[in-house]
Every structure is written in C-alpha cells, then in structure tokens.
Design a protein that fits this description.
This protein folds into two domains: 63 residues, Alpha-Beta Plaits; 250 residues, Aldolase class I (TIM Barrel). It is 34% helix and 18% strand. The protein has an eight-stranded parallel barrel, surrounded by seven helices. The chain starts with a strand and ends in a 5-residue tail after the last helix. It binds phosphoenolpyruvate and manganese (II) ion (MN). Phosphoenolpyruvate binds next to loops. Phosphoenolpyruvate (PEP) binds next to loops.
C-alpha cells in the first residue's frame, strides 16, 4: 500500500502513519522526495487492510494499493528517477556511464593493459570477474581472491572504480572491501539469500536480468535489495533466451523504455553477453544508447584470442576506442554525454 503525504505534511504526520503501520505488524519504507513524502506499507496482508485506516490520518493526501508484485522498485512508490553514485560518478543522470574490461581477471598484465585502454577511451568504471559462475564446472572459475587483489591494484593505480561479480552470500563482506560495485549475475538474479546479503551491505549493485526472467520478476528481485535499505540499485539488461539461435541471447531493447516507465531505477545494457560475438556488439551498444539506457557494460580484452573466458565476444582496445567515438554523437542526440 502506498500512502502519499500532502506537500505540507509535517514529520510528525509521517510518523503517525509509520507508527500506525507498525502497530498493524507491517514494515515501512519512506521515499523522502523533493516534493512530497511517500510511505510504502509492506507486508503479506496489506491487501486486507481497509484504505481508510491511513486515508483519515492528518497530512495524508492519497492512499493506493500497488497491484504489482514489486513495490519499492515501482514508480508508484518513487516517481522521481533514482541516481546511483559511485565515487562521485552518477548512474541515471546526464552522464552516460560506460563500464568496460575483461570478462575475467586473468593476470596482472592482462588486467592492467585492459584498464589502461578502456580508461584512455573514456570508460569510467572497470569490470573484471574474479569469481566466475560458469555453466560447466570444468571451465575456468576465476582467480578468486588473487583476482580481487588485482582489481584493487588497478583501482589504486588508475583511480577508477571497479565492478565485480559476487556469487556466494558469504563473500559479500570480503568483496565489498575490493570492489565499488557488486554485480549479481544473470544466473543469480533470484538467489534471494545473495540479494538479501547485498541489500544489507548497502553497496552499489548491478542486478543483471535472469536468462529467462520477465521484467516483473526482475523488478521483484530488485525489491529484495531495496527492502534491506540498499537504494543503490542499477539494473542491467543482458539479453534473454528466445527461440532465436543466431546470437547468444536476444537483447531486449524494449526493456529499457519499459523499465523507465514502470520503475525509478537506472538501467544499463550489456551487449557483450547478448551478442556472443564481437562483430555484433557495436550495433547493439548503439541501440542501447539511443533507446535511453543509462550506461553500458562491455567486455574488452587486450588480446581476445588468448582470453580464458568470452574471447569471442570481447572487443579489442582499438575496437572499443572506435565504438566510444561512435557512441558520443548518439548520446548527445538523446541529451546525454559520455
Ligand atoms: C559477466 O558479466 O561476466 C557474466 C557472467 O554475465 P551474465 O551473468 O550476464 O551471464
Ligand atoms: Mn563474460
């Protein structure tokens, strides 16, 4: 249930609503918007509560039920766009944020070459997996702690924030020491124990869309992060499973305007994992910018032929440099800059 307070409602008025909800065994989340405060009243039995319980309280403007499965990620709860701040870099604002780097951290030389190249071309966050959730247990699983240490070294040397994937809820605290953004991979979108732990950490998080998840399921998963008080949530469209097999996954460009309509959360796009092939990445990246995405997550490897993971879909540094130049005018045409 959503309780919209009047413009001039006092903090005491808001507190009366909050206490009333709590006395009924509900939990609450506040959106202290610039214009007015919105109170989300959450609990499995809010559907049975009569609206008048809150509608008649002082300072209350309107009470509505949110009929969608997701509540906190919805625009009803928070009409204004959310901005996620990573060391001063805002995702969801005018700046189009490009995150780039290798699929996996493989060695110091490989990572430093990749970071130098992507930074030079204008990427403002570096990606690199230390824990790799591979489809096969026999594939390279990542350098784990040694990979995290290399990421921390790159962050220090190049002064660039780092994003890396977390696959186990027990690793959240440790990885948070090394990374600025935690990534939840597509295969873990509905790993609720992981989401809850990352929610508690309050760290900026990129939540990838599950391979076969609807937008509603994705936003409901985001509610697990938001419910723990972590409002630093960025969504990432990375393609979904369809009948089409000429690409790795079908990049659902339509999810960008849909998310913008139904949610306040920023959305970035990973064209690399959808494309599966480097030659397709630039067109898909350009489409994402034009469709209103807030950023990109792209795989770049200094020598894709020797990559241990995802070499086929990785751009070379020079391909990436060219792509960045091609993206700039498109970003400008939709009121953004890179
Ligand atoms: C990745 O970003 O390296 C990755 C494994 O992506 P996804 O979870 O989207 O498959
Ligand atoms: Mn990859």
């Amino acid at each position: 249930m959503i309780v919209e307070m009047k413009k001039g409602a006092t903090p005491e008025d808001v507190d009366v609503v909050v206490q009333r909800a709590k006395s009924l065994g509900m939990s609450v989340q506040l959106n202290l918007g610039t214009d007015k405060t919105v109170v989300a009243i959450l609990g499995s039995s809010t559907g049975q509560l009569p609206i008048d319980i809150f509608a008649l309280l002082p300072g209350v403007d309107n009470v509505a039920r949110i009929m969608k499965p997701y509540k906190l990620a919805s625009r009803e709860f928070k009409p204004e766009d959310s901005l996620v701040s990573i060391n001063g870099i805002e995702v969801g604002g005018k700046r189009f944020v490009v995150m780039a780097g290798p699929c996996a951290v493989e060695s110091e030389e490989q990572l430093m070459k990749a970071v130098a190249a992507v930074k030079e071309s204008g990427a403002c966050v570096v990606r690199g997996g230390a824990f790799k959730p591979r489809t096969s247990p026999f594939s390279f699983q990542g350098l784990e702690k040694a990979g995290l240490e290399l990421l921390a070294l790159a962050r220090e040397r190049f002064g660039i924030p780092v994003i890396t994937e977390v696959v186990d809820p027990h690793d959240v605290t440790q990885i948070s020491k090394y990374a600025d953004i935690l990534q939840v991979g597509a295969r873990n979108m509905q790993n609720f124990a992981l989401l809850t732990e990352i929610g508690k950490s309050k760290r900026p998080v990129v939540l990838k869309r599950g391979l076969s998840s609807t937008i509603t399921e994705w936003l409901t998963a985001a509610d697990y992060l938001l419910a723990e008080g972590n409002n630093q949530v960025i969504l990432c469209e990375r393609g979904i499973r369809t009948f089409e097999d000429s690409i790795r996954f079908s990049l659902d460009i339509s999810s960008i305007p849909v998310i913008k309509k139904v949610s306040h959360l920023p959305i970035i796009v990973d064209p690399s994992h959808a494309a599966g092939h480097y030659s397709l990445v630039p067109a898909m990246a350009k489409a994402a910018v034009a469709a209103g995405a807030d950023g990109l997550l792209i795989e770049v490897h200094p020598n894709p032929k020797e990559a241990l993971v995802d070499g086929l879909q990785s751009l070379t540094p020079s391909d990436f440099a060219r792509l960045m130049e091609e993206l700039r005018p498109i970003a400008k045409s939709v009121g953004r800059y890179i």
